[in-house]
Amino acid sequence: MAISDHIAANAEKLAAQYGCTARTTEEIIADPQIDAVLIATSTDTHSELIEAATAAGKAVLCEKPVDLSLERARSCKTNIAVYGLPVMIGFNRRFDPNFSALKTALDAGEIGKAELLSITSFDPAPPPVAYIKVSGGLFRDMMIHDFDMANFIMGEAPMSIMAAGSSSVDPEIGAAGDVDTADVTMTYADGRICVIKNSRRAVYGYDQRVELLGSEGLLQAQNTLENTVVKSTTAGVTGAKPTYFFLERYMPAHAAEWAAIVDAINNGTTLPVSLDDGVAVLAIAEAATLSAKTGRPVLLADV
Amino acid sequence: MAISDHIAANAEKLAAQYGCTARTTEEIIADPQIDAVLIATSTDTHSELIEAATAAGKAVLCEKPVDLSLERARSCKTNIAVYGLPVMIGFNRRFDPNFSALKTALDAGEIGKAELLSITSFDPAPPPVAYIKVSGGLFRDMMIHDFDMANFIMGEAPMSIMAAGSSSVDPEIGAAGDVDTADVTMTYADGRICVIKNSRRAVYGYDQRVELLGSEGLLQAQNTLENTVVKSTTAGVTGAKPTYFFLERYMPAHAAEWAAIVDAINNGTTLPVSLDDGVAVLAIAEAATLSAKTGRPVLLADV
Amino acid sequence: MAISDHIAANAEKLAAQYGCTARTTEEIIADPQIDAVLIATSTDTHSELIEAATAAGKAVLCEKPVDLSLERARSCKTNIAVYGLPVMIGFNRRFDPNFSALKTALDAGEIGKAELLSITSFDPAPPPVAYIKVSGGLFRDMMIHDFDMANFIMGEAPMSIMAAGSSSVDPEIGAAGDVDTADVTMTYADGRICVIKNSRRAVYGYDQRVELLGSEGLLQAQNTLENTVVKSTTAGVTGAKPTYFFLERYMPAHAAEWAAIVDAINNGTTLPVSLDDGVAVLAIAEAATLSAKTGRPVLLADV
Amino acid sequence: MAISDHIAANAEKLAAQYGCTARTTEEIIADPQIDAVLIATSTDTHSELIEAATAAGKAVLCEKPVDLSLERARSCKTNIAVYGLPVMIGFNRRFDPNFSALKTALDAGEIGKAELLSITSFDPAPPPVAYIKVSGGLFRDMMIHDFDMANFIMGEAPMSIMAAGSSSVDPEIGAAGDVDTADVTMTYADGRICVIKNSRRAVYGYDQRVELLGSEGLLQAQNTLENTVVKSTTAGVTGAKPTYFFLERYMPAHAAEWAAIVDAINNGTTLPVSLDDGVAVLAIAEAATLSAKTGRPVLLADV
What we know:
The structure is a homotetramer of 303-residue chains. Chain A has 303 residues and is α/β, with parallel strands linked by helices. Chain A folds into two domains: 2-91, Rossmann fold, CATH 3.40.50; 93-247 and 266-302, Dihydrodipicolinate Reductase, domain 2 (2-Layer Sandwich), CATH 3.30.360. Chain A contains twelve helices and 14 strands. Chains in contact: A-B, A-C, A-D, B-C, B-D, C-D. At the A-C interface, β13 of A face β13 of C.
């Protein structure tokens, strides 16, 4: 096992912690003993590293998004097709035990046919505006997780995307050309509807909920909480806040994600999220970004 | 006190139950002893009856909507302006103790500045298609309540309305030119966003929730339940369903609504909902209907 | 309909409000036109009034307890047996929709065989010590409701009663010879166990919960809340408090209780709570009072 | 690191899994390189192993109970006092994040002065009767955890213990001289009261709740759930069951417990649970066992 980091000291520290070696990216990719790589670098290096790793015969788990450019993500997909290797994009939320239990219940027919999906996804606090400027915008950077969740639950991509957004949280974000509060409505060929709400700021913590109305019922995956203590006083009945942010909320999801790609590499099981999924959500993010700018619905087929 | 019903037997029965007399509508309006009338007739008679009652010096509580025609509702408003009498439209949900507590908390600054409002409003079962055909459509007939809730909470009308709808519940409803599942996104001049979701069918009961994200927190008004019993078995932990439909859910709201107009008549207090409010939501419903048909956002100023 | 009150002005006021007449107790009992009386006087007059009313051929709904003296309550029962008239004691909680739903679920076998019952019953604030002194003590005055709830759910009286109590809320209550915080454990002939917890003070409101473990599950009847609004802020997730006290919590129960005795009088249906039930709980209260004083379990058969 | 197991194959398997060696207990205790031992053997060997390990200069984490014999536990305490080494008894529940958050809130004065504590502790299913027979009985084997929880929250031992029990779950357990359903009421010198409820069977899972009424409010630590999904259908609103048993529920507690003793050994921090705590709860268990047999309250000072 080996670790590379463009800040050598960080690589050394992690290597010591996990009992492995710190090496350059080039060395890692060139080493035939290494079967798989995890790419958690800045987004602009993802496509290139995916291509280099697969060309060297390695399986890949790459953090989202594949690329900020839909065109480049598509060319990456084309370029690596020949290798037929497992390439998984890190849509960790599919592995959240709550969301996956909801999906399992849906697939088991527990609420009949899906009709109306709602995804609420609020961060506890906005990132620095400097980050916003290189992020590709809320739809590519943040809501992309929710687009993947919609694809995961609905089982296919939407037909049409309508986005509304504003910079209610911080006008600086608006000045940087982005939004921090947004709502996207997606319609599907068979009439299903999906609504996604995003905010860069929910002061009470990471708000991550999914709700699905079906012909025979409703499924809701609610927030996980810091603890189960409830206090009743003259001021009301108060429980704990949601687990603060993604590290706390999605720790079990990350463990399950990791187990899935290890299983795929070792036992040839199907990858639960592929590079194709990563490219598909980029197209939706592109459509949403365009819709928010023009104030018009955008057909997915047009991007 | 007197009751009129175009089916005389019904009027007689109610009159007996409440110890009053059954009379014709004309007699009631002509009676100078009667100070106020409640109009709960079919929608196409609302405007005319409001005009006749106010011309006869009576205060009015009229069930929604004012009219299916926005133009007619506007002319009704013009026609009765001269009388200066209390005319309240029956938007009962403003009087629901849960929604009004949410509004009170917002106005008290408990979550800072409003940013993103979500209204979920599902009926337990669709009405007959025959009713759908004369209803004016989902946006004028059903979502009109939610438009009023949005106006109530946001304190002003939206700028732009985008609607998506389908007939997922019953294709007959689609064949009748209406939708039964719909999502409307409204944006406000200052960047606030409101999302309304409607379905004609939630098999578990009347689902009536409001959720508002603000700069300093989140407010949620949740469903009322049939009872508080929770059963834990090998099958899971099961609680009661939401109160079944509007009669059960909004009984306290109707009582509070009634008290409000009586108070306005007797003591000259301000009407919490006026005919103007009734006309305002019709304009939003008109915009939503147009948006759903064209697939384009509609500016409220354009209807 | 007629009303009597030893403060004449109060009787006059109520009579005006409900459109009836204010009369003396003697006049009411002597009036052959009156079929039934509601006795809501001070406890020391209950037995005598029940006897007088039934002797005059009237049905009775009398507030609990029948008497502070178990002996007197038993003689009342003996004295009126000859008349065979409906005499109901006001154990309103049996009519609470939540507790009655729990009982219905139990009787329907939804959690198998009952094994362990827990009743939590806290008042929001203690009454004046002057009231405590004439109340008969916590077990006869307050926990008597919970003894009746236990009898209602378990379907029979316990075999043995063990009580523990203290005056944690107010040492003045202890000085008056009573307790304000208490726990009673009752065991049944077949091994079932019931635990009742009382406190004269729960600053967050009226806490009225029942929980029953059975061989196939658990039933819980939880508190009703002032409203369904939940607020999430940096301080936590806060919901409404329980409805404040018995007037708010048990309003629907009182209406159902009233309907039950009217039905029994008019249609001869079985009384859901009888004088026998009122005498039975007095015996349990007597046993609990004795147990708390001696620190020893008391057999119900011994009181 | 080394592992001993009286079934050699098990020790070998664990040793391989964790990269250490399988050795005899004697070898481990004799090895001066080993600083601390975890004793998770059958109860009858605990005292002897604690004594041997501390005599050899090792710190100890020993699973509860110290011994089934209170006398032997006390002699163990005396025998090891001279070594002054950290000896922690495995009362894992003190480390549960929910119970420790409740304790922290109490200590911070959030509900004023403690008055009435309730502990609910139900296992999902009873152990084999063969186990029951050597377990020392429910009070020493199962409720001992709850006695420790009471000591943890109340900050001192109770004065008096009254127990009631039955074999409602399985008459075989009764035939073996034990109970499977029990309630214990403990009173404290200052008037506080604690109620503990145990059942060997809650078919819906591991039910582990603590509730504390104080002069200024109520604290409740509720169950953790398998997931946060809620399903609403015509059958009701159903959520997930509690996490199934102690392995699932107390995994984070075990990790925190382990971290605490490691910290005590490495940094000399105070042990959060000591051998003294383990002896103290045995005395309470002894009193409860006696009380259940005699039907009388037992003073802790008398055992």
